[in-house]
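Example record for the data management plan.
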Amino acid sequence: MEFIEIFKAIILGVVEGITEWLPVSSTGHMILVDEFLKLKVSPEFMEMFLVVIQLGAILAVILIFWNKIFPFYIKKGKGLRIKKDIFDMWFKIVVACIPAAVVGLLFDDYLNALFYNPTTVAIMLILFGILFIVVENSHKNKLPKINSLSQITYNTAIIIGMWQLIAAVFPGTSRSGATIVGALLIGVSRTVAAEFTFFLAIPVMFGASALKLVKFGFAFTGSELILLIVGMVVAFAVSVWAIKFLMSYIKKNDFKVFGWYRIVLGIIVLAYFYLLK
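Corresponding structural encoding:
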């Protein structure tokens, strides 16, 4: 296998690791990157690759937030104990994931064929970019009603889950972008909205990756396996940085900069595919 193919997998892993967690749409970036850095693989492998490298990104969430997501601990002299608040949170996460999971299982191929195109991606990039700016402007100087994960109710979780469903249907929306916007609209603080979004990604991405692997099959060539592992490892390393950056950034800043970035990227996607190409 040529080194240039490994280099391309590294670049794709970097893009995935950054854009999966920042609310800027990993799909929008991947569409552009794939235009210039095409791996010498089958279309079926590429479709699977772009989803499964997300597992690396998920491992970064698990590493960083382990104490907030692992519900078991050992108490000296009393054995295994359960953290009830974390278990409650996971039940809410499952509830929030149900809409996207059902739609994904039933309509994944149909939705990909219908909406996975530059036009849809660009439109959703721009629309949610505008929405970020509008929401942040309307919530300026307003105090959030939900300031901790424990304050998220099942109703709140369902509402956030419905916003996640929008991202599952329309590529370019950004799963993190959609859920953060939805959370902000109902009074969730930026920090809690981001954390809950990260945790929602764990079952969603594991499920999506498993679905793609099953559809593709496990008959990888040696070269394909190397590319997949490289992409996942790089996505993991970069995700650690991206998550820490975002959590630090939003403690002092709002999401408007991401809204403007999305608008510019959406215009670039439209210009490239319909004017320059």
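Summary line stored alongside the record: The CA atoms of residues 54 and 205 lie 7 Å apart.
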